[in-house]
């Protein structure tokens, strides 16, 4: 075993400063430094290098102790993490609603026991918009490092005892991990991103270079200084180019993570005397940022998260600047007043106390999650917020998606809800997510009018409930046709179902929403399956509606066409204040949308639907427009409660409000 044993490297702390600066800049201004997230990959290489060097040195001298190694890790990592988790729990208690505090509790638990990556793997992807609303999103990388620290010392010790070639062991493990990363990146991108098995190759890159005793042979023939300088400059360029060129929509880590990992490796291998390492990375201010990089990494994302919450989602330059300034000051205070003092403490019970404290905080987080975020803290605000930004099936007794899907042979993967699973369905609501938001209100209304009717709602998000049409953001991908065919086949073959309600957000598929027009964006492409040469959405939709109605009417079903609600061009949080504490008012003073604008935007889809339905007088038409719009405005709020949970979906109150005004009694046979 030949370990590359060097004294303290200030340039590596400088490299840490580069890594944390990239991550903070990306989180603060993701559209400016689109690839700043690669700072985490640089951290992985540094961690793999330093930990391997520490362990291997001790193994080489025969002084390695598992107990001492893990005690040092606890002293190094736990103090700052305890402070951040505790601060999040306390601030969350006073500033967050139950629906925000509950997942925070879950993420505090995950962070405390170092399984954040697995918790997040089951939720939205790292780059999804909803990830902005997770105060501890960034702890996934810390969890992967801790999982590495847990296993790697054992592997190294066994390999040394067995006299194995460590270069070969590390190389094989790294290649297997990288191969799995490449193989599964396209089919399981979220799992690959958060899984230690598919990310550990980056740490093993650092582990590998810890055993490189001198500069690589292929560069022989040039002076040592020239080689060092070339490597350090090239390494910085690789990191800089990755941070500038990559973006959140790129498949990552995939092969792309090789570039920042290679850059970090070249900088480390170049040595502390290389020109870039000495002049830039070794500069005192840069080294200092590196020294506080760990607490800075921990503090920055919660600071931005709570800044977003307190500013009513208005992250302007002042809020962002204040959050970053707070993060730097908090990191410096944590480093000097907490971390250094704890590390220098002679008491042998400190690691045990820290371990118990972290587990205790994790337990509190778990209890907050189990208590559903303690909703009794702000009862009045919770009532208002219930209809904004979320759609809670659980409180209303419709938590039967899995059982419903199983009952229908697992053919409808997105939405499947039934009023009563013990009785056959008599009315079917078919459609996309905007049909889904009508279910709760319709179910409540049908229950009022009938004891025998049973509503089932089935469908798939982003898919019109029609034959011979497919909707996708990728024109080459078929995602709706089979689901819709299975859905209609089920309805046709169910003699108990006498009425079918069709509903969808047609204007979205025809790119006629306010957002699409304002941003000149094409969110969906619809195509005809039988006539792929057609490129007119109006004609494609008209043909699909006719074919679907013909099939349903031929099977003796009554049909109701439920038109979609007007879309907003803002989120309800922009006009409804649901914050216990805020430093800014809402973005908008009104939740209304100009009726003329709404009519103009939706004219194409609505005109096409009414034109087609003139040929089907037996089909009933329900139009929610008149329920939320007057002659001048369309209202997002009624009776001081938001109708909408987002730009195009109703909340629970909105679903009830619309259903109360629909002629639901005409559907029942009682």
Question: What is the helix fraction of residues, given as a range?
Answer: 55-70%
Structural class: alpha/beta
**Can you count the beta strands?**
12
The end-to-end span amounts to: 84 Å
Please give the oligomerization state of what you see: single chain
Total tally of structural domains? 2
Query: What do the pLDDT scores average to?
Result: 87
Large-scale geometry = elongated
Q: Mind telling me the C-alpha Rg?
A: 29 Å
- DSSP strand content: 5-15%
Task: Detail the poorly predicted runs.
Answer: 393-399, 516-522
Explain how this protein is built.
This protein is an alpha/beta fold. It has two domains: 10-367, no CATH class; 394-667, SGNH hydrolase (Rossmann fold). 56% of the residues lie in helices and 7% in strands. The chain has 27 helices and twelve strands.
Offer a concise description of the structure.
GO terms for molecular function: acyltransferase activity, transferring groups other than amino-acyl groups. The protein is of the alpha/beta class and 670 residues long.
List the helices and strands and how they pair.
Elements: H1 10-28, H2 39-61, H3 66-95, H4 98-112, H5 116-121, H6 139-161, H7 166-184, H8 189-194, H9 196-209, H10 224-245, H11 258-270, H12 275-281, H13 284-291, H14 293-310, H15 317-343, H16 350-370, H17 379-385, H18 401-407, E1 415-418, E2 427-431, H19 433-436, H20 439-449, E3 455-459, E4 469-472, H21 481-492, E5 499-503, H22 506-509, H23 514-519, E6 525-528, H24 537-554, E7 558-562, E8 592-594, H25 595-613, E9 620-622, H26 625-628, E10 633-635, E11 637-638, E12 641-642, H27 652-660
Helix pairs in contact: 1-2, 1-12, 1-13, 1-14, 2-6, 2-9, 2-11, 3-4, 3-14, 3-15, 3-16, 4-16, 6-9, 7-9, 9-11, 10-11, 14-15, 20-27, 24-25
Organism: Rhodoferax lacus
GO molecular function, one term: acyltransferase activity, transferring groups other than amino-acyl groups
Protein name: Acyltransferase
């Amino acid at each position: 075993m030949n370990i590359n044993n060097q004294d303290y490297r200030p340039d590596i702390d400088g490299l840490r400063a580069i890594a944390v600066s990239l991550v903070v800049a990306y989180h603060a201004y993701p559209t400016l430094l689109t690839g700043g997230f690669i700072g985490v990959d640089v951290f992985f290489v540094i961690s793999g290098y330093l930990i391997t060097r520490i362990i291997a040195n001790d193994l080489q001298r025969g002084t390695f102790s598992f107990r001492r190694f893990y005690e040092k890790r606890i002293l190094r990592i736990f103090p700052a993490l305890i402070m951040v988790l505790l601060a999040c729990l306390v601030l969350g208690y006073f500033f967050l609603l139950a629906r925000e505090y509950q997942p925070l509790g879950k993420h505090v638990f995950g962070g405390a026991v170092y399984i954040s990556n697995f918790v997040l793997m089951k939720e939205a992807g790292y780059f999804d918009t909803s990830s902005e609303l997770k105060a501890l999103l960034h702890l996934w990388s810390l969890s992967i490092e801790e999982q590495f620290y847990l296993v790697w010392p054992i592997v190294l010790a066994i390999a040394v005892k067995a006299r194995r070639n460590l270069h070969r062991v590390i190389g094989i493990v790294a290649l297997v991990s990288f191969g799995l990363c490449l193989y599964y990146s396209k089919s399981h991108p979220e799992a690959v991103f958060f899984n230690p098995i598919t990310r550990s190759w980056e740490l093993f890159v650092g582990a590998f270079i810890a055993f490189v005793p001198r500069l690589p042979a292929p560069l022989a023939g040039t002076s040592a200084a020239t080689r060092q300088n070339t490597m350090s400059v090239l390494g910085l360029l690789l990191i800089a180019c990755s941070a500038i060129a990559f973006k959140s929509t790129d498949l990552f880590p995939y092969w792309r993570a090789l570039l920042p990992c290679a850059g970090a490796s070249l900088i480390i291998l170049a040595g502390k005397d290389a020109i870039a390492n000495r002049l830039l990375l070794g500069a005192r201010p840069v080294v200092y940022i590196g020294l506080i990089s760990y607490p800075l990494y921990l503090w920055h994302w919660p600071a931005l998260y709570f800044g977003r919450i307190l500013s009513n989602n208005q992250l302007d330059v002042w809020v962002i600047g204040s959050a970053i300034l707070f993060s730097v000051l908090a990191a410096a205070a944590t480093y000097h007043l907490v971390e250094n003092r704890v590390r220098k403490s002679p008491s042998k019970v400190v690691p045990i106390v820290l371990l118990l404290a972290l587990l205790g905080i994790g337990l509190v987080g778990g209890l907050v999650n189990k208590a559903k975020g303690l909703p009794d803290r702000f009862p009045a605000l919770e009532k208002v917020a219930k209809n904004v930004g979320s759609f809670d099936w659980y409180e209303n007794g419709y938590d039967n998606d899995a059982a419903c899907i199983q009952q229908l042979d697992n053919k409808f993967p997105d939405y499947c809800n039934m009023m009563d699973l013990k009785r056959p369905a008599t009315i079917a609501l078919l459609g996309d997510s905007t049909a889904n938001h009508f279910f709760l209100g319709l179910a409540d209304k049908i229950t009022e009018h009938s004891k025998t009717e049973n509503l089932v709602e089935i469908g798939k998000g982003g898919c019109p409930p029609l034959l011979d049409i497919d909707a996708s953001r990728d024109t080459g991908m078929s995602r709706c046709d089979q689901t819709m065919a299975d859905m209609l086949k089920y309805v046709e073959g169910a003699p108990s179902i006498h009425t079918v309600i069709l509903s969808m957000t047609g204007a979205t598929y025809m790119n006629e929403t306010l957002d699409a027009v304002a941003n000149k964006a094409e969110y969906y492409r619809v195509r005809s399956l039988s006539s792929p040469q057609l490129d007119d959405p109006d004609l494609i939709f008209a043909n699909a509606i006719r074919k679907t109605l013909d099939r349903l009417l031929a099977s003796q079903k009554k049909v109701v066409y439920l038109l979609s609600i007007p879309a907003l061009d803002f989120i309800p949080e922009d006009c409804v204040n649901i914050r216990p504490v805020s430093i800014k008012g809402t973005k908008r003073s009104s939740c209304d949308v100009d009726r003329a604008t709404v009519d103009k935007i939706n004219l194409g889809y609505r005109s096409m639907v009414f034109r087609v339905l003139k040929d089907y007088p037996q089909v009933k038409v329900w139009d929610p427009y008149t329920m939320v719009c007057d002659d001048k405005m369309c209202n997002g709020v009624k009776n001081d409660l938001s109708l909408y949970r987002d730009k195009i979906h109703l909340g629970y109150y909105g679903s009830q409000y619309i259903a109360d005004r629909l002629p639901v009694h005409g559907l029942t046979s009682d």
